[in-house]
Amino acid sequence: MFRNLCGTNAYRNIVVLTTFWDRVSMEEGLMREEQLKSTFFGDIVTGGARFMRHDRSSQLSALQVIAHILMLAPTNLQIQEEIRIENRILEDTSAGLVLREEVERVLEKHGQELASLGKEIDTMKQSNESLKKELEEEREELQQHLARWESEKAELKRGLDNSLKSREQLVDQYRSVDKVRSATLEILQVKVEEDQKTSEMMVARMNEEATVHRVYNTWNNEDDLIQFTYSDNYPPYMKTIPVDDRKNPLSIFNFASFAETTALLFIQPNLLWSKLRNLAPDQMMLDKSMRSIEAHNFRLHTEARLRAKTDPNARDMYFSKNVGLRRDWYTDTVFGQQQFTGTNPTTITLASSRWRDEFMSVSHAQGRTDVTKLLTESSGNIYVQDYSDYRPTVGLSPEDDIVCQGRYGCSAVALFHLEPEGQLHPLAIVPDYKDSMGESVAILNRRIASDVKGNEYEDWPWRYAKMCVQVSDWLRHEVAIHLVNTHLVEEVIIVAAYRCLGPNHIIFRLLEPHWSTTLSLNKSARETLVPKIIVGMIGLNATQAFAFVKAAYERFDWKGLYVPNDLRSRGFPVESLNEPKYHNYAYARNISQMWNIIRKFVARVLESEYVGGDREVLSDVSIVDFCDEVRARNGGELTSFPEVKTLDELIDCVTMCIHIAAPQHTAVNYLQQYYQTFVPNKPSALHTPLPKSLLDLRSFTEEDVLAALPLKQPRDWLLMAQVPYLLSFEVPEDSTILHYAETTSSSRSTLDIIRTAAGALKADLETFIHTVEQHSDDLDDQETPYLVLDPSKTAISILM
């Protein structure tokens, strides 16, 4: 029956697992195993089945069995082929025929017995009446058996029909589980390898000098390997990652968090294990209030802390503090401060006359003379977060909604006043800008200044508008500022450097330590993070999301984003950052000084290398080729990359390469868990349509704000909370920029001019630690320190 049900092709997917090897000698165990192979399991072994052993004293053998099973390619059962391809009915399948033959054999047997008894009755009519009665009873019993067999035959047919329907339902679940199987296969394989190679890994980690500078023995053999490849969805990237740069996702991400995120992608919410499912608010348990969500967040944080006391490995996304634990998380003060020290402190910009005029028209229309006066008298202190270009970027018209599968995006514009004392106060918000103010809904803050009192907690229309700004910023931050402007831009630099600079070129030696994990991490982003996670969290479909990615890359302004240039263009002159008005902009104060420290280090090295100055730089063919490769249409396609002709330009360019990989990526990556795990603070999408008029928006209640959150979509909620946690694990101590300076300055294998400069870099970074602490102490907000750019915490490369 098994052969006819599954088919011989399924034999290769069979594992015969033997255990209790600890109870017999190896010799006896091998003998018994061979007997099983040659006798009882002979057919399936011949067909490809595999014998495996489980040593009950070791987890490794169990993981090997699971890994083997998950690696097996799925195969259709014979009964599936016969029903779905050959269009047989269940009774006509091989398994059905075997079963039918068995039933018919039994029926025939009982029929023969019944006929025989009938003859006996005919010949014994004159016999003893008691014997006749006994035979009649036996005949009746046989007739009952026959009826039961007929009934069971009919029931079998009904059961087989029902099983077909059940199988179709199970197929869908199987497909989901199969996706998880495929996604977790690599996890299990790595787990096995890690158990086998622990000692080797420890030795590798201890060999710090080997990590300071890698020697590429196969450099000349990699010319064909190191190439740009192209996609409609992403900027140019490395076609094949060199072996030395390949990293498995488990060596990058936390194992438990990676597995949980994978599960969220493929498993239906009702099938998630309870520990994970319970991290999302339960709509049935909540009293439909924001307070209950805050209480749920506090409870999860408290429970996570208690669990970690007994099991440090039991940490989850709620172990660390998040902004939702603050009593004032929803206020204008916290919202404004996030523009300066949140996950995206890089796009707040001095408002142009266009935006001041447009919001002036709104204040006139709504009779807010106080706003009109402020916009007129303080024009030099009005700042904007501008997301108004989303629709044209992704090919939507002004009247089109930004929506995908019930998730709504928005194209917000937020206006702020930088007050003389340094508080950034939100004045007005357009939740979803549609080409003009006349076509859009705009709301003005009831509170004209930060010191004006009011019931901020129950100002639901204004709270909803701020949430729309956060949704808009989620997209720009994750896709443009984080993914494109750091990860993908840096990859273009890496590929061009591989192709144009030899391993001993001074620029390569300066940049190579800042590439750890970047290529493998980017590969995971292109293959999994963006198409399977990000696209499923936002209001854009895949085509629109990829258009957003490509547009961000095309707009990247290399020299314009040099820190001094960028800050000045956004209305924050570097020379004025220590004035009281800017004391809350700790990101700007820190990143500008970090830029100077890195530039000083780079200048020390390059001035020693290019003693001939500009002329020697201009004559370095490798640098010319490198710059051309980054810009070329058949290269990196980063058209804003400069033609380096002077030593000063080269120093700036190399500084930018390090800046992108180290402090800039750190600044926009490692605060995600704090600000985004508490979903109401910064959701990735809304789950109800946006209001079409100011009247609609002004009528918003707490219920409307809650409805816009994914309270009824637990998987969406969990992804919004889990992904920031996955991407925000603390930087290992041996992967910080300070550790790089320490090891580089003390390593004998380091080039002398780099080792000397690294010694000065180390001293500068150690001093800068205290500067970062001081800038954090200067903040008005002392509840959330801003220490992300502390050199002892700043990653040396794009690690996450």
From TrEMBL:
It comes from the Eukaryota. PANTHER family: LIPOXYGENASE. Keywords: Coiled coil, Dioxygenase, Metal-binding, Oxidoreductase. This is Manganese lipoxygenase. The lineage of its organism: Eukaryota, Fungi, Dikarya, Basidiomycota, Agaricomycotina. Residues 178-800 form the Lipoxygenase domain. Residues 100-159 form a coiled coil. GO terms for molecular function: metal ion binding; oxidoreductase activity, acting on single donors with incorporation of molecular oxygen, incorporation of two atoms of oxygen. GO terms for biological process: linoleic acid metabolic process; lipid oxidation.
